[in-house]
Design brief:
- Helix 2 (about 20-40) runs antiparallel to helix 4 (about 55-75) and helix 7 crosses helix 8.
- The protein has helices at about 5-15, 20-40, 50-55, 55-75, 80-85, 90-125, 135-160, 165-185, 195-200, 215-235.
- The protein is an all-alpha fold.
- The protein is built from ten helices and no strands.
Length: about 240
């Protein structure tokens, strides 16, 4: 089977699975809601208006991760992967189509999410957001879309390796919400190359670490690529 019909079939799976559609909606809702809440708290000498506007991405990424995880883990339930591979024997082609079918909607929703978060965050901050430049705002909106997409793909690749959505979420969510912050406080610059901390540099107006906004996203991209390569290897080598 050619790539285009395989991609179309994977897109149909995502459109018809309500949990996946709900996951995409949750990306927008969680990000904008928490950005609005963060904008209400502007105390502290280290206040960064751009990061405050996009603070909700740290919570919206959980929904993006759940989306990428569910999209892949659904193939390992009820023998669905065996049926899929019977129709598409070339496993690498199928996994590539699955990856694209995950990335494209997250990227689109991420752009909308970035725009909504910017509007909501600036409205809440009021005059405290006046110092933000058009370039900084555009960078953060585009970075929001790219970052959420990379985190969804990281989850998709890890799920293909573990073959369990529960196992993937049990690793990634505690890591992002707890472990990453603990490591960051204890290990200095080592934490700068963790996938979440590296990618979120794009949401800061200024930064002190070795990574800039785009190099930070590049590091997150390397994490996602490594997970996808491991997932592709697992799909090709292990029984369905």
């Amino acid at each position: 089977m050619e790539f285009t019909p395989v991609l179309h079939s994977e897109w149909l799976k995502i459109r018809t699975l309500r949990s996946l559609v709900g996951g995409l909606a949750a990306v927008l809702l969680a990000t904008s809601a928490f950005s609005a809440l963060a904008g209400a708290d502007t105390e502290g000498a280290a206040f960064d208006p751009l990061f405050s506007v996009f603070f909700g991405v740290g919570f919206g990424q959980i929904a993006a991760i759940a989306f990428g995880t569910t999209a892949v883990s659904s193939e390992f339930r009820g023998g669905a992967l065996r049926v899929t591979l019977a129709a598409v024997p070339r496993r690498g082609r199928w996994f590539l189509a699955k990856t694209v079918a995950i990335a494209v909607p997250v990227l689109g929703v991420g752009l909308v999410t970035g725009g909504v978060s910017l509007a909501v965050g600036k409205a809440v901050l009021g005059t405290k957001a006046n110092g933000l430049t058009w370039g900084e705002e555009a960078r953060a909106v585009i970075g929001c879309a790219v970052y959420l997409t990379l985190m969804a793909l990281l989850a998709a690749g890890l799920t293909a390796v573990l073959r369990s959505g529960v196992a993937t979420l049990s690793i990634l969510i505690p890591f992002l919400l707890i472990v990453s912050f603990v490591i960051g406080d204890m290990s200095g610059s080592v934490a700068d190359v963790l996938p979440d901390r590296a990618g979120q540099v794009v949401f800061h107006e200024t930064w002190d670490g070795p990574l800039g906004p785009w190099t930070g996203l590049g590091v997150t991209g390397l994490w996602a690529a490594a997970a996808l390569l491991a997932g592709a290897w697992s799909i090709r080598r292990r029984d369905a």
